[in-house]
Amino acid sequence: xxxxxTTKGTTATGETVLDARGVTxxxxxxxxxxxxxxxxxxxxxxxxxxPNGAGKTTFFNCLTGLYIPTEGEVRYKxxxxxxxxxxxxxxxxxxxxxxIRLFANMTVLENVLVGRHTxxxxxxxxxxxxxxxxxxxxxxxxxxxxxxxxFVGLDAKAEHLARNLPYGEQRKLEIARALASEPGLxxxxxxxxxxxxxxxxxxxxxxFAIRDKGIAVLVIEHDMRFIFNLCDRVAVLVQGEKxxxxxxxxxxxxxRVVAAYLGEPFEDAPGKEEIAEVxxxxxxxxxxxxxxxxxxxxx
Length: 299
Ligand SMILES: Nc1ncnc2c1ncn2[C@@H]1O[C@H](COP(=O)(O)OP(=O)(O)OP(=O)(O)O)[C@@H](O)[C@H]1O
Ligand SMILES: [Mg+2]
Description:
This protein is α/β, with parallel strands linked by helices and 299 residues long. The protein has helices at residues 56-63, 85-91, 108-115, 124-129, 132-152, 167-179, 197-212, 224-230, 248-252, 255-262, 272-283; strands spanning 16-27, 30-41, 45-49, 71-76, 79-80, 93-95, 185-189, 216-220, 233-238, 241-246. The strands form 2 sheets. Strands 6-7-8-3-9-10 form a 6-stranded mixed β-sheet, sandwiched between helices. The structure holds adenosine-5'-triphosphate and magnesium ion. The site of adenosine-5'-triphosphate has 12 residues, from strand 2 and helix 1.
């Protein structure tokens, strides 16, 4: 993995890779995502943040054909995406999952090979008959898979079972598997969840290196330092709606974002009445004959 170009914004941004327009997702009476517009351009790393339950993963699911949005449209490089996961992957969008989804009893290498199936031209009969075309394609696939494992730093563990990898390495393997479909856009759902600080820094470098390979990245993460170090642009989802979008400085300085995370006290919030009652009682308290020295009403 190269680390010499791992600074933010070194690659010029270009064409629009992802264009989500008015995406809404309802589950019965619950609107999990409401009228969200978001673009990602080539050369960009875009962050998607928001409190738990804000609709971030649901939005990813709408982008990748796992859910069919109730309203709205998703385009990848000007093509309206078909509502089927494997077709979305074939079109050029790959993803990782918040809850790691690996084939636990397959080796590390086999997991990456599975990720290549949308890119191998050899058909079913060729695979079954195992003719020369199949063997050639298989050799090329293995070579590419090993390259990707080297890229994420897992080549030495190619023959290990996926389930025996430590958690942080399983997340890296998911990234390698996603890259195996040769995407133009990579969606990462909490890639550093459960990682220690060193692993998180290494993942930051890895995402920069992916961007430097010409793959645009859209990343969900709760680790704000990771997001603000990494992203050219950050969008904030709150209760399914996009509240703010801008560069890291703009988003960090926006009071509404802070309020959304901390939970803004609203009018008639529980407790307000009680506070008012206590204040009134204090103000109306009788002369402080038995007040302790140093209390406010002693002055
Ligand atoms: N398949 C589903 N059916 C019903 N409700 C759903 C479904 N998927 C998600 N939701 C609801 O949609 C809302 C958004 O959930 P989502 O998982 O997208 O949030 P999130 O922003 O990814 O949260 P987190 O940061 O905790 O991962 C939640 O209220 C969730 O319960
Ligand atoms: Mg989520």
